[in-house]
Amino acid sequence: MLIVVLVGVVIFFRYEQAKQAAREKGKRPAPPTPVVAMPALVRDMGIYLDGLGTVTPVSTVTVRSRVDGQLMAVHYREGQMVEKGALLATIDPRPFQAQLLQAEGQMARDREQLRNARLDLARYRILWQENSIPRQQLDTQEALVRQLEGVLKFDRGQVENARLQLHYSRITAPAGGRVGLRLVDAGNIIHSSDTTGLAVITQLQPITVVFPIAEDSIAPVLAQLKKGARLPVETFDREQKHKLAEGTLLTIDNQVDPTTGTVRFRAVFPNEEGMLFPNQFVNARVLADVRRGVIAIPTAAIQRGPQGIFVFVVRGDKTVELRHVQTGITSEGETAIEAGLKAGELVVVDGAERLKEGSRVEVRSGGHGKK
User: By the 8 A CB rule, do 269 and 246 touch?
Assistant: First the structure.
């Protein structure tokens, strides 16, 4: 009986071994893992400094009347772009015309008095030379002429003042820019002491952006400015998806804010398309320097593990190698490689989470460029 059991066990194990051998013989190798790989390229990489900035106009002017009177007409539309010197409003000019007429009449009267006094002075000089009048009478006439000359000069000032008041009845734009909402309607009595003004003009072209940068970045920027370099600045919308304008760095502030550890930068933009609006929040970045001839790969290819930073490099036999690298600056979706990688080597940028050392891959090409 024992012999029969042993024979059955042996037959069973041989049967299982035969089945296992059959399965091993018919087993197929695992398919390669599809990945996207891009070559490491040699390129110039810019070093950018980013900050959340505020659009600040070069000038904002509140237009006020310099004389009192009734506002007769408003000659601008709300939101209109106006040039410097454009007529904005008109104040009733008739009171100022009457003042000018009075001043001109008084000056004409005093001018004739002066002319007559000068004629008398000429006669008195002849009579004094002939000893027909005393010296005192001549001196009195000379003093009268000088007095009337002073009166005539005062009259000229009155006339010029009256003309100036008449000129001020036409309110013009002191600067070019965009006119805001109207603050006073025609028909109202306005005064030079009014604080609200008639309108606000904001200059939009050019326009500036003020944004903070960390104090550690002051030195390299100052070094570039001392060389006379014009550092380019770009502005983007709140989500950093759309570029709004391009300009240049104008200057930096004269002190660091101790509460934030930042210094304010001011950049100027032509704003020809009007994409920047006063007090608008934008994301600004300044190109502080350019690293020439660095090996760059997409940042998505960078992997991090317990042993440090590494990438998967695709070898010629379509297997991958786990390669430790030393990274440098990161800019616009790319990272510079300081050591561990050569130009032209393929690195995996998508699908690396399914890989290990020696894994077989199926490479799919992908674009390699800046965002």
Answer: yes
Residues with Cβ within 8 Å of residue 335, at least 6 apart in sequence: 296, 297, 298, 299, 302, 327, 328, 329
- The CA radius of gyration of the chain, in Å to the nearest whole number, is 44
Q: Which of the following CATH numbers is that of domain 33-44+293-365: 3.40.50.880, 3.40.1080.10, 3.40.50.720, 2.40.420.20? A: 2.40.420.20
SS3 39: strand
Indicate the fold that domain 49-59+203-292 takes in CATH.
Elongation Factor Tu (Ef-tu); domain 3 (2.40.30)
Burial status of residue 341 (CB atoms within 10 A of its CB: 0-12, 13-18, 19 or more):
buried
SS3 assignment, position 300: helix
Measured at the CA of 290, the angle between CA 289 and CA 293, to 5 degrees, comes to: 155
The answer for residues whose C-beta is within 8 angstroms of residue 64's C-beta and 6 or more apart is 192, 194, 197, 198
CB 199 within 8 A of CB 74: no
Burial of 187 (C-beta count, 10 Å sphere; 0-12/13-18/19+): exposed
* Region(s) of the chain under CATH 1.10.287: 93-168
**Rounded Cα–Cα distance for residues 36 and 175 (Å):** 57
Query: How far apart are alpha carbons 71 and 215 in whole angstroms?
Result: 52
Residues counted in the chain: 371
Helix (H, G, I), strand (E, B) or coil at 355: coil
Q: What pLDDT tens digit does each residue of the chain (371 aa) get?
A: 555 445 555 555 565 665 565 455 545 566 888 888 889 889 888 888 889 999 999 999 999 999 999 999 999 999 999 999 999 999 999 999 999 999 999 999 999 999 999 999 999 999 999 888 899 999 999 999 999 999 999 999 999 999 999 999 999 999 999 999 989 999 999 999 988 899 999 999 999 999 999 988 888 888 888 888 889 999 999 888 899 999 999 999 989 999 999 999 999 999 988 899 999 999 999 988 888 888 998 988 898 888 789 999 998 888 888 988 988 888 778 888 888 888 888 899 988 888 888 888 888 766 554 44
